[in-house]
Structures are given as C-alpha cells and as structure tokens.
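Record type: monomer structure entry
Structure origin: computed from sequence
Chain ID: A
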Amino acid sequence: MKKRIGEIIRNATVIYTDNTSEHLEALRFNKRGTVIGRIVNRRFIVCGYIPKKNIKEIRQDLKQ
C-alpha cells in the first residue's frame, strides 16, 4: 500500500516485523511511523503510535 504523509485510512490491518498482526480502526501516516486512532464525530482521535521500523506491511480492509 502506497502511503502519503497525513493520509488517514480506516479499517486497516498492520503486520509487524515479528509477523504478528492487528486490526485497527484508523491510521494516519507521518514521516517516522503511523499514528493509531479512532474516528469520533468525523474527527481523528489519537490513541497510540507505531514506529516505521516495527511495521512490515499495512493492508486496508475493504470490507466494512
């Protein structure tokens, strides 16, 4: 998946470098990694952070 700085995607699966995976509601990309969040009243609420070096792949789940 091609990522752009500041882009927000919803319903994504993050695959970590240790091959574990996690489904997340919303992600926002920045230069150093990915910000985990939730969408509440059409606003992105920050809930955490994943450094770029810990991410192997990000897949957007098209089914909702």
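Annotation 1: The domain at 8-60 is CATH 2.30.30 (SH3 type barrels.).
Annotation 2: The two ends are 18 Å apart (CA to CA).
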